[in-house]
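Following up on my earlier thread - several people asked me to post the actual chain instead of describing it. Fair enough. Here it is, all 736 residues.
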Amino acid sequence: MIRLFLTLLTSLVLLSACQPDSSAPSAPQSNSMSEISKSELSNSKHRRLKQLSSAAPLAPTIDYSAQYHGRTLSDPYHWLKDQDYPQVNDEPVLDYLTKENAYYDKFLSPHKGFVETVFQEFKGRTDEQETSVPYIDNGYEYRWFYKPGQDYRVRARKNLETGEEQVFLDENILAKDHEYFVLGDWDISADNKTLAYSYDTSGDERYRVAFIDLASGQALADTLEDVSGQIAFSSDNKKVMYALLEQDRWLAKHIKVHTIGQTQADDATIYFEEDDGFFLGFGLSSSKEYMLIVSSQSQVSETYALAADFSGELKQLVSRDKSFTQSVDHAHGHFYILANDTHTNFRLAKVSDQNPSYSQWETLIEGSDDSYLINLKTFDGFIALKTRDQGLEALSIRDYQGDTRAIPFPEDLFTVDIGVNPEFGQDHLRLSYESMITPASVYDYQLSTQKLIERKVQKIPSGYDKTQYETKRLMAPARDGTLVPVSLVYKKGMTRDASQPVWLYGYGAYSITVDPSFSSARLSALDRGFIYAIAHVRGGAMMGYQWYLDGKLKKRQNTFTDFVDVAQFLIDEKYTAKGNISISGRSAGGELMGAAVIQAPELWRSVNLGVPFVDVLNTMLDASLPLTPPEWKEWGNPIESADDYDLIESYSPYDNIEKRDYPPMFVSGGLNDPRVTYWEPAKWAAKMRANKTDDNLLVMRMNMGAGHFANSGRYGRLKDYAEEYVFMFLAHGITE
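Reply from S.P.:
Thanks for posting it. Predicted structure:
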């Protein structure tokens, strides 16, 4: 199905949940961050992180105020936003960030041995020579693999006629001269002669596109700049589609078509989006007959179809005026559509590709309160459907006559997704499967035998025995009576006597669901006695699309109270004790962490705020930021509405910091981050440090050469995770 990666295009998200893939506490070191007061020693075995003996950096304050709807907004750290952004060259700003990083390094210095221990644990569970399950597409068998010790993938393909294999993309070579490197997208022309790929070397998500002649291996003269990331060849091999970012803005308004051999200046616009509040995306239908172009904003999207050779006129399937969202694929002369126009949890409909007007849509599966239709993909002989039924995931196969059968799986609580299936005519469905105790696996479901064929199970070289761990789903009552799902995993033998530390994770925005998935790195916490829990709060979509709607705009507070209420439930049920819970979240999940810190600081042992969206009011008031207008439908528009201003001000974490005690905090950011700009974590750290009345540690790690996703490469990210784990471990008195 063409979901068109719209989730990735929303501005402040990207779940990227930082869940990377029992030692007894030892005596604290000299100048250790785990020093303990006498009262703590007498009351608990656990130790909190304490301030360094030298003074933490204190950001100066500069008076700043603005008027909105008769209200005065005062922000003494407004100066941390460089007025030349996206260029950051203001010396006082850079000086402050440098001091924060130096302070972070000072914290880290006595614990580098512990960090290295945890990193080696992560690395020991990493398959140095991991390779993908090959798949067949257009006469070639494709695979990727890692070489020992290398950070990036090597991509190869084998000609099925000659048996000759060719490495067509070695990310390690591309990344060689860059501190940061991310491959955005790649595509090969239908005649198998030309490769196009997009890449980012700064973390600002402003991609460049390069082209390779696959016969000679030589680069073509063509290059594209300021691309959003996605690229796709036309079926005639002559053109490439991309979305062009506005100059100095991270917003695409033009879908462009580049003709090989011409300059980018000659590229034609085939779709222009007039409204700054909409994101653009595109993707090829499974039938490979149409390119589908989508413009979307929160709960509203508009879909067009264009012939795969990029000729002819755009066909509009549905207008944004209908005020609903949809996902589209194509097969056998029909578009197949998941749409939430008649039911919140979506229906399945179809319409002729010759007359795809909305009035002609035919319902195949009605919407249901109990079954949330999430994803579909068409094949020549069947349709694959992913659903979430009462909060539990399922995959089913439906033929074009309407007969449906569910694919059986061995566990009750798991995560399953439609995998890489490029061939329209294949007679199997490739899928990915995992649970909180089952490593990531790849299966082929054979339609002829109705059986799952195992193709790959994630290797854990240092060893893993799933029988030593348990997972379960709980339902925690929120304060309004709503039952909130909680997924748990822990080492078998855990006793519910309130003595265990808990690591609680949350997100809760954009309808994104944090799935109960596997993490090999997480074993380092489980083996040290932690219970790991995911609070599936409202704002996500664990219990259906209404679950999302019940956590946004005027109902945003539900997300925060759900998280706090889940923690209290775990305390009441004696899974842990008050003050023995460490929490973490990234991006919009970092906003959740900020709100949880403000609303219930006494519950937490430590807090990890990853690239946190904490300065909500200021960001939503700044229409010059290209990612702000599309976000008004998610959070509200405080420029136009006094009610929205008051609502956001009431929960915006940064605006609600007050003088009181707070738990230890680890804050991270990226100087080049276009999603959550660097000044949000910086302002949070500055204001929090000036107001907190405790002596618990607050550190900020600002990556000066990366963006929203921190270090690139598998080992670079593992090193970041190791530092974050150690911070949490030290907060619980675990020093090895």
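The domain at 16-123+463-731 is CATH 3.40.50.1820 (Rossmann fold). That should answer part of your original question.
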